[in-house]
């Protein structure tokens, strides 16, 4: 499981989606607080 900031997620969304497609779970934070999770359904 990886944690990235909202700014980083915005900048690198295609790369993050490729990682999620390979089975990785990614948590997006805003000011250090988790606000979203990217994962396969």
From TrEMBL:
Belongs to the phD/YefM antitoxin family. This is Antitoxin. It holds the Pfam family PhdYeFM_antitox. The lineage of its organism: Bacteria, Pseudomonadati, Planctomycetota, Candidatus Brocadiia, Candidatus Brocadiales. InterPro entries: Antitoxin_Phd/YefM, YefM-like_sf. Antitoxin component of a type II toxin-antitoxin (TA) system.
